[in-house]
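#struct-queue
[09:14] JT: dropping the first one here, sequence first, then the structure tokens:
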Amino acid sequence: MFRSLQLFVPTRSNGLRGNAATDAQRPVAGTERRDGIPTGRVGTSGVRWVAVFLLPLPGLSLAAPAPAEIAAIDPPRSYGYVIGDVIELQWRVTPPPGMKLRAEGLPKPGAVNRWLVLRELQLAEEGDPSPRSYRLKAVYQTFRAPLAVLNLTLPGLPLSLDGPAGPQAAATPDWAFKMAPLRELSVFDADGTAPVRPDGLPPRPDNSKARLALGLSLLAAATAAGWWAYREAWLPYRGRGRHFRQAEAELRHLPAGPDALRTAYACFHRAVNRSFGEPLFAADLERLIGERPDYAPLKEELEAFFAGSYGSFFGAGESPFSLDRLAALCRACRRIEQERT
């Protein structure tokens, strides 16, 4: 290929000054001579020098490997960043066939410059072995505090590829973004005073479920308290007869035994004494019925109770006034107390 190149020797016919004979006899470096006359063709030594100068020319050297394909994945917004914000960038790197990305060649996390820090760098292989691609994730944090909106650039990450043709260098593209100041250049108004802004109201939380639960809890508590007050005769219209109600409860839970009847008599005596505000005996029944005529229907039962109680405590110990009869008398006294005006 190189032997087809010819070097022209300047002669007088080219419009140059000089002795034609002398020029014809002067040898040209690197040219062939035939019968002592230069032929104008390049010799072996000339070919070497011409090849040295022509090899760097495009199209005459060996073909270089294709560059790696680098594409951004879901790039974040490029505006509205302030000091301390974290920026996350991702790329998909697809090396040429037969090459792979060296993880050892990636930069280490740390300070990039005086206001930018590379906090995290992750490399993950994805896709089939052919074509092989990599997902590169970089997390930056900026500490620039501009006084006005500022255009900044995150420098690209240097990459190193390995393959049969040798190592190949690549880099992710630079990423431009805008940073804003946290405050204005001057914090004072035109009159020199600092502006006072009202505190922002926090959003009102949705507490409808909590209010509903609280209402139901209060309703359940009020119902339970009302039922207990009714049961214990604590209500105003139920306050009368509460002592007889307590006696009824004690009679229902009275344990069985030889002294059960005496314990029942004592319970009813306490209810009668508390209801009338003084100890009541058999001799006081006439006065009681005179003051409380509504007890007149129970006169015979009350006399029988006092007689049975006296016999049980101070007599032979036997009494014809049974527990069932005493419970019925207790209920009757409670109804009279509750219904009286």
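[09:21] JT: and here's the second one, same format:
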Amino acid sequence: MRYPPKVEGGAPLPLASEGARGGAGPVLMERRSILLVVGSLALATVSRVFAQETSDDLLYDRVRRQLVNDRDLKILDLEVTVEEGVVTVSGYVRTEKIRGRVDKVARKVKGVKEVINKVAVRP
């Protein structure tokens, strides 16, 4: 198969070797190469952002699930947020022991980089 493919009007874009014969060949090839590189960089950036959002969503689900499944914590109304792998937990608990348990459970979740424990003790 001939690369690059034909464009409007059926005329093929020149191959790199054809550019040596003069004409607009080298310019078209260079422009196409630049567009491919720029497009690839944009796609890589979008992919990275999407992967991070997906990863944060998964971490949120995992942390919430672990907190809800813990017998000492399941009745608590805790707020969880995740940004770039950093989990922030906030809310109120009755004892310092339960506050520590929240921290411990969140830290055990695979993929969590750091836990910011904003849980306050309110008797």
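[09:30] RK: nice, looked through the second one.
[09:31] RK: The chain has one domain: 8-121.
[09:31] JT: good to know. The longest helix spans residues 25-69.
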